[in-house]
Amino acid sequence: MSADLWCVVGLGNPGPQYAGNRHNLGQMVLDELARRTGATFSTHRTRNVVGEARLGVLPGGAPGPRVVLAKPTSYMNTSGGPVSALASYFGVPPERVVVVHDELDIPFGDVRLKIGGGEGGHNGLRDITKALGTKDYVRVRAGVGRPPGRMDTADFVLKDFSSTERKELPFLLDLAADAVEAVVTEGLVAAQNRIHARP
């Protein structure tokens, strides 16, 4: 166990048919973090695909903390087992587990950070809370907004982003990746102050 090691988990569903869905936004952010760090994903005994890297730069210019980037290979609603197994395998406490996920209660394009609190009907988060035995892990909540009209929320999150959203998606992925980087290099409060203060 390393004192500066973090686990960063991107939620989604496995398989190419889900890859572009709103519900796979967490995994898209992990792909962006892997691109930034040069990490490559490979299968791991914890039922995740995992890549290891250093993320960001600390104040003073030293390389940022070591991170384990992980995408569960289970379905979204059963993310808890892989996340718990990952944290246990690497000896990382819940407060240094960062879960990146889509969030209906935040407008598309916005990102919010928190530790603990409710799951807001997000079954992936509910399963992680149950498996870790605590709500006290960091959430990077990437907004997808609410479904239009009377569309069912499950149908909405399992659809791909609209053509208009796809034009803006790179900015959202960039912001969410910046938010993860800020959490591990600056701490949650400083990261919240910076990310939430955006115009």
UniProtKB/TrEMBL annotation:
Active-site residues from the entry: H23
Subcellular location: Cytoplasm
Reactions accelerated catalytically: an N-acyl-L-alpha-aminoacyl-tRNA + H2O = an N-acyl-L-amino acid + a tRNA + H(+)
This enzyme's EC code(s): 3.1.1.29
Keyword annotations of the record: Cytoplasm, Hydrolase, RNA-binding, tRNA-binding
Example GO molecular function: tRNA binding
Leading EC class: hydrolase
Oligomer and partners: Monomer.
Stored HAMAP family: Pept_tRNA_hydro_bact
The protein, known as: Peptidyl-tRNA hydrolase
Organism of origin: Flavimobilis soli
UniProt gene name: pth
